[in-house]
Design goal:
CATH architecture: Alpha-Beta Barrel
Largest sheet: 8 strands, parallel
Number of strands: 12
CATH superfamily: Aldolase class I
């Protein structure tokens, strides 16, 4: 016969844990996010649809983004066992400096639209995590303000060349004066991609207070409160930007960029130069001949040309052609630390992360970005340990393959 009694408090307390989940529900939700997809779900709950879609969406039918993620889904690792993996080293050299992870937090436009803490929050996480961060030309924090806010971060600056070269030169001079050590020159945006979600949502920069927008406020009061009670939401580099991001890009950015302009950037910029947006072996060879320090195999996260090549599939081909002449980075579709590990194994020197940390930012500001980086770091460490790789240098093409089907 079972004898029952009331439990004593000292018996119940350990089962409840030390945190009261009701004191900070957002922090509790971030802590329970097991992966980047969980952060994406949180971001969608806390951000207006037009803003979430601006981050989450891609060009056209979004096939380039879908295919990139699908290829990562077809990866198959080949682990080695009977290896001592009690001490793992996830650090690597990225363009002459040590990074704690083979990750760069990529440049993203209009970051304060996702969350009012914006670029300084992202750069602060990069600094504390020991990885580089790149500020975008389309950023919402100025070059100088970011340097003042996060002086210890390794700061890179991303540039779109403009029709008038004078502003481009001025931006590079300001970045150099502000201690930014690397330039990312983005070359895959001669015109803006056709982003259907933005058109359907009527997204403008800054967001307009239309009737539908006012109705939307009731669903996301915290987001709107932060927008309306902090500094005006605008690009730090441009003024008079009424309309969409595509309108701005088509009006200001130069569609006539050639290898001669890469040479111009080298003459103006004394630091490292990374060219972002390379999608073919031929262009990689041209840039190797130009003497750039690195390229990013990238289709702009699928946000420019739909049906563009998948960067991960191009990586071994480009590595074979030019891998000994410059560093190779990759981005697009990366949603886990195992994606990062596979990319490095297949030949990448580092992986640029964009949407993954923006999901964290939308989910919980700086704490959300930190959660995203922590998730990626743990996944990298776990994947390496289970592969039998004790350091980044031990990752190689024998560790992973791309299956023809799932």
């Amino acid at each position: 016969m079972t004898t029952r009694r009331l439990p004593r408090w000292h018996e119940v307390k350990p089962l409840l844990g030390t945190e009261n989940p009701f004191t900070n529900r957002r922090a509790h939700a971030l802590a329970r996010a097991a992966n980047i997809w969980d952060l994406r779900a949180l971001a969608k709950r806390h951000t207006p649809a037009a803003v979430f879609d601006y981050t989450d969406g891609a060009a056209g039918d979004e096939l380039a983004l879908t295919r990139a993620r699908e290829v990562f889904g077809r990866l198959e690792f080949e682990p080695r066992v009977l290896r001592d993996v009690s001490n793992l080293d996830t650090s690597t050299e990225i363009l002459g400096a040590v990074s704690a992870l083979p990750i760069v937090l990529a440049p993203t436009g209009f970051t304060r639209m996702m969350h009012h803490e914006g670029e300084p929050a992202v750069a602060a996480v990069a600094a504390s995590s020991g990885i580089p961060y790149s500020l975008s030309t389309l950023g919402t924090t100025s070059i100088e303000d970011l340097a003042r806010a996060v002086p210890t971060a390794r700061r890179w600056f991303q540039l779109y060349l403009m029709r008038d070269r004078s502003p481009s030169r001025e931006l590079l001079e300001r970045a150099a004066a502000g201690g930014y050590d690397t330039l990312i020159l983005t070359v895959d945006a001669p015109v803006a991609g056709l982003r259907h979600r933005d058109v359907r949502n009527g997204l403008t920069i800054p967001p307009k207070l239309s009737i539908s927008t006012l109705a939307n406020m009731s669903r996301y009061p915290a987001w709107w409160f932060n927008v309306l009670t902090t500094e005006p939401l605008e690009f730090a580099t441009f003024r008079n930007t009424e309309g969409t991001v595509a309108d701005l890009m088509n009006r200001v950015f130069d569609p006539s960029v050639t290898p001669a302009d890469v040479k111009w950037a080298r003459e103006v910029w004394a630091g490292k130069i990374v060219v972002k947006g390379v999608q073919s072996v031929q262009d990689a060879q041209i840039l190797a001949d130009q003497g750039v320090d690195a390229i990013v195999l990238s289709n702009h996260g699928g946000r420019q040309l739909d049906k563009a090549p998948v960067p991960l599939e191009q990586l071994p081909l480009v590595k074979a052609a030019v891998g000994g002449n410059m560093s190779l980075f990759i981005d697009g579709g990366v949603m886990s630390g195992s994606d990062v590990v596979a990319s490095v194994a297949l030949g990448a020197d580092a992986v640029l992360i964009g949407r993954a940390y923006l999901y964290g930012l939308m989910a919980g500001g700086q704490a959300g970005v930190q959660r995203a980086v922590d998730i990626l770091q743990q996944e990298i460490r776990t994947t390496m340990a289970l592969l039998g790789a004790r350091s980044i240098s031990e990752l190689n093409p024998e560790s992973v393959r791309i299956r023809s089907s799932n």
